[in-house]
UniProtKB/TrEMBL annotation:
Keyword ATP-binding: yes
Residues that hold ATP according to the record: T67, P68, A69, G70, E71, G72, K73, T74
The family this protein is said to belong to: Belongs to the formate--tetrahydrofolate ligase family.
Pfam families with a match to the protein in the record: FTHFS
UniProt enzyme class: ligase
CDD domains linked: FTHFS
NCBIfam families: PRK13505.1 (NF010030)
HAMAP family membership: FTHFS
Keyword vocabulary terms for this entry: ATP-binding, Ligase, Nucleotide-binding, One-carbon metabolism
Domain of life: Bacteria
Protein's organism: Shiella aurantiaca
Protein name per UniProt: Formate--tetrahydrofolate ligase
Amino acid sequence: MRSSLEIAQEASLKPIQQIAQSLGLHPDDLEQFGKYMAKIALSPEREKEIHKRPRGKYILVTATSPTPAGEGKTTTSIGLTQGLAYLGKKAIVTLRQPSLGPVFGVKGGAAGAGYSQVLPMEEINLGFTGDFSRVESAHNLAAAMLDNHIYRRKKPLFNVSSIQFRRAMDMNDRSLREIVIGLGQENGVSRATGFDITAASEIMAILALASDLQDLKMRMGEVVLGRDSDGKPIRIKDIKAEGAMATIMKQAIKPNLVQTYEGQPCIMHAGPFGNIAHGCSSIVGDKLALHLADYVVTEAGFGSDLGGEKFFDIKCRQSGLFPNAAVLVTTVKALKMHGGEPYDKENLKKENVAAMVRGFANLKKHLENIQAFGVPVVVALNKFPTDTEAEIQELEGFVKTSGAYGFAVSDGVADGGKGVAGLARLVDAAATANPNPKPQFMYDLEESIEEKMRKISQKVYGADDIVLGTGVKKKIKQLEEDGFGHLPICMAKTHLSLSDDPSKLGAPQGFNITISDIKISAGAGFIYPLVGKMMTMPGLGAIPAAESIDIDADGKVVGLF
């Protein structure tokens, strides 16, 4: 089979105006970026007109705990959208935007694979319409104004040691994780700080959760930078930066429109981390899509314990939208790893039903997590050529006894929408059987911060209890006194395990979740406890993906994915 990049480069793309027209959008509703990409820029009148249309069905795609073998949520989301179109349904997929750091660092492209990808793949992965750059610029403007505020000794006066707002850059660079700024005369106040990758910026999380530009500006103004000598929060609005930041972000708030390999619309907008933030595409994009199509397929980052739980408890709460059905993606290779097989590419290709059966414990827990929100769940096997009939039959048999709505093999990488038609039929039936979903959440907002963390840890991760690290109880008290106690929780935990230990695969038991620190994202509207050490600035590997990426004399990109 040809590489995903070769397939993308040989695709026959439709002009973006044609994709927009299929949704009932007018040429004046677009701001084009070349022939095949555009921002949807609606006038207030057009926005009201479109939001009067009937609302489509909403489908969440999540997965079992990630492994190096890959699960394929994005690929399945795109393939499912093409599969629904294959059945004659009008469907849109809404996805997060790729970050440049991972593209050049560890995995190449991030827009699907094979015949289930969004196009134009090179442009999407290499800067797209500039949203990440605008988030980075707005974030760093606030950082620069913060340090100027300190240097000029403006009021309110910061307790410099309390500052939690760092700088942002959309590239993997471990040397910038911890730095000292302000060295030398006339260079400001010397202090320790660092860089986070742009996807981990609170401004990115706000972009994904804001309802419009004015809401975006208001939320950015609420971002807590640090505290004064009395311990009171100092926000971005206190240094008068939110207006200029909103000016930078005025284009970024507009959703981006591209297309799948088979010509279905994709709204790709915002790209927050799936552990330090909520890992979902924008509310603006989803709300618009639901009035443009019969089905909207959206993806949440990592497994059901991270992006999936946060999709319900954070995004759904803020958007007022709740899915009609969910898809839980897994692979035979990943189940073998959760069953105790080491990561060995050749070994995982060999038939091993016993190891896969041991890995069912991980699948079962993730299935229970989604079912706890009252949503019908379809289990999708993202098929690899090495999967055997015996392994597939064993998995199907397990799912039939699990309480899931159904099971389907998804072969969108090799066969596009046709290869996902069976999954699409099941999803269509599940969503149709749940036309008016009733929101269910893992905790009540009125509960204490500690109790909310405990419920997530016990109900979603399967922990016995939580353990609060040194100083965490004091910080919780401070957050509640500051008026943040009612906010939802965004647990920052490893994605590799249901527990807080990445080496514990499957469905661990007899463990506690240790909360090492707790912080506030007041603009995004959530509290994020740190479970262990969270990496917000990745590094490059021994052989970065960038070593294989090149462009020839004719402008053709090679080695991207």
